[in-house]
Amino acid sequence: MAQLNFGGVMENVITRDEFPLEKAREILKDETIAVIGYGVQGPGQSLNLRDNGFNVIVGQRPGKTFEKAISDGWVPGETLFGIEEACQKATIVMCLLSDAAVMSVWPKIKQYLTPGKALYFSHGFAITWNDRTGVVPPADIDVIMVAPKGSGTSLRTMFLEGRGLNSSYAIYQDVTGKAFDRTIALGIGIGSGYLFETTFQREATSDLTGERGSLMGAIQGLLLAQYEVLRENGHTPSEAFNETVEELTQSLMPLFAKNGMDWMYANCSTTPFHDAIKPVVQKLYQSVKSGNEAQISIDSNSKPDYREKLEAELKALRESEMWQTAVTVRKLRPENN
User: What's the rounded mean pLDDT across residues 215-230?
Assistant: First the structure.
């Protein structure tokens, strides 16, 4: 483990050079890893583990997602099972279900968490707010986490390109004395670029803040607000979308990812929004930390018509003028012509 300087703050970081794949394979050679859930993170993590030579199986309920797992090469009765059977066979249970699904399936998973097993998450939500979710793990198992900082799709794509997606890691319970090695070996196995230390609580609060902030909620709100203002002032859909979304995603994001925001400020005209935005982010963070945002998610996900309402919201978003304009603009990109 190396200590690296991040802007004057020292952090524990583990790289693939100091913890190579061969070491990870050796640590987990006698483990059976069951990936439970084949939705968002499940495919990327399980396929990367399989390609890296680990003993991995998938647990998934029957349905369309089960069929997707078959199409990805998982074999029913050999490497693909129902959730309960996979949990029973596993020594490491990787719980990659959605937060709502974890709560509903937890009683089935818990009964197979026998002493010495490890329970793995890629999000701290269920454990951090377990007074609300009911996900209280047995005291005689390891409870660990590796949280890739990106989508499961990105994890898989970057793996196939020979790159790695950075991940955080945390240990909630170490009963066996092997929790650290298990955690880092899994982190390397799923294709992490480097791993940085966190806690379940810190990961959950930072993830929800980011999700509702710069990664999803706030950026969609900012993009839509700017698009609407431009349209209300006579700009065409194409002009409003290009000035709002296309320039940001296709030109500026790659540049400040590569060179930093100081470079961007030196090369672009800017109007700082920090003083207006920070109080909003502070309020958001406190709402997350207090558990209010978690309760909103739990209440919403628990409603019988949750899926129907979600589909209606996604349909409205997809069919809005801004994102219908996006369909046309994407087709006009040079790589598509």
Answer: 88
